[in-house]
Design a protein that fits this description.
By secondary structure, the chain is α+β, with helices and mostly antiparallel strands. It folds into 3 domains: about 140 residues, no CATH class; about 80 residues; about 70 residues. It is about 40% helix and about 20% strand. The strands form 5 sheets. The protein has a 5-stranded mixed sheet with strand order 10-11-12-15-14, with no helix packed on it. The chain has a 4-stranded mixed sheet with strand order 1-4-5-8. Strand 4 and strand 5 form a beta hairpin. The two termini are about 20 Å apart. The structure holds iron/sulfur cluster (SF4). Iron/sulfur cluster binds next to helix 2, helix 9 and helix 10. This is PD-(D/E)XK nuclease family protein. InterPro entries: PDDEXK-like_dom_sf, PDDEXK_AddAB-type.
Length: about 350
């Protein structure tokens, strides 16, 4: 297992939720796992911002690049056969047309922003998807404007920015910490004082947060903690005890792609009822029923007959079935289109 050298602002939240997930992510990326097409759409939108950073786009050239990049992203995505259930991306990625339209609007508008010119002071200008690196932190903010010792950074989000907390809506924790990481990079690399860095989250529907600021101390503490946490993870790698980094829980693991590889999750699942996953330990003990299968004390309804046959055929191995839904009132799980089977 390789040690972590750098992390990006979008991975910082994993230091708080599950450090093992971060380590897996750095190690394996998303290879070998089915992923939701909303991620592909998000990457496509970021790619368009990257293109817009090197050339000015108009309506026609935007459409041309979008088409080309979508074709490339689709070809890559569907190399993984597990993803074929989400073909075509335009149909399965939520709000595809709206997000594309909003991205175009923002990019065409940003083409009118002032670009660095020969009269600009050193480091001033408008930066789109430019890479910033400081110590263990490396990231590409979507858009940074620097002028007269002031900076405005905008991070575009394809999903909702807010979550409900009590009676009010607040910015999601993972987005706030991500913004702080970007702000820290701007502070260090563009030498802007902390209070003069305005951080904004903008949804592709145009909704924006008020500017957010952090103090110098908040930025420095943030980086100190992130660096210490990465050093600690690397110590676990050195001592060959990475399983101790796992923080399995129903919510932490729900969307984690690394469940089949994760000993922490599999032990957790042995001891706890999780509504989206089951383990079948000896497939030859499966009993067929009218609606699906029964295994010991639970039912799994709607499992396709071919999948049932495949599971029975694996012999005396454990099988993990993920992405299920479960009845609240009894021990019945339901097979969904996104459900997947792994031999573990
Ligand atoms: S499955 Fe759970 S415990 Fe394992 S890496 Fe993912 S989030 Fe962490």
């Amino acid at each position: 297992m390789k040690k972590i050298e750098t992390i990006s602002p979008s991975q910082i939240a994993m230091l708080k939720t599950c450090r093992l997930k971060l380590l897996h992510y750095k190690q394996y990326g998303e290879k070998g796992y089915s992923d939701h097409p909303s991620t592909v759409l998000g990457n496509l939108i970021h790619k368009m911002y990257e293109i817009a950073s090197s050339k000015k786009l108009d309506d026609q050239s935007f459409e041309k690049h979008w088409k080309e990049e979508l074709a490339k992203a689709s070809a890559q995505y569907f190399k993984n056969e597990l993803n074929l259930i989400y073909s075509p991306i335009e149909f399965w990625a939520p709000y595809y047309s709206i997000k594309k339209g909003q991205t175009k609007k923002i990019i065409l508008k940003s083409a009118k922003e002032p670009a660095p010119n020969k009269n600009s002071k050193k480091g001033e200008g408008f930066y789109v998807e430019q890479s910033f690196k400081y110590g263990v932190l490396k990231g590409k903010p979507d858009s940074v404007y620097v002028k007269d010792g002031y900076s405005r950074l905008i991070d575009f989000k394809t999903g909702p920015i807010y979550k409900k907390q009590g009676n009010q809506y607040v910015i999601k924790d993972e987005y706030k910490i991500q913004l702080k990481a970007y702000g820290f990079l701007v502070m260090k690399k563009k030498k802007i004082s902390a209070p003069r860095i305005n951080l904004i989250l903008q949804q592709v529907n145009g909704q924006r947060t008020e500017p957010i600021n952090f103090s110098n101390e908040e930025y420095e503490n943030f980086y100190y903690e992130a660096k210490a946490s990465i050093d600690e993870i690397n110590n676990y790698v050195d001592s060959n005890s990475i399983d101790l980094l796992g923080s399995p829980s129903e919510s932490n693991c729900k969307f984690c792609l690394f469940k089949p590889k994760c000993h922490s999750f599999l032990s957790y699942l042995d001891a706890n009822n999780v509504p989206y996953a089951v383990i079948i330990e000896t497939p030859d003990e499966i009993i067929s029923t009218n609606n699906g299968i029964r295994f010991h004390d639970f039912y799994l309804w709607g499992i396709p007959p071919n999948t049932e046959l495949e599971i029975r055929g694996v012999g005396k191995k454990k099988v993990l079935i993920c992405n299920l839904s479960k009845s609240n009132s009894n021990n019945t799980y339901y097979w969904k289109k996104q459900s997947q089977v792994y031999i573990i």
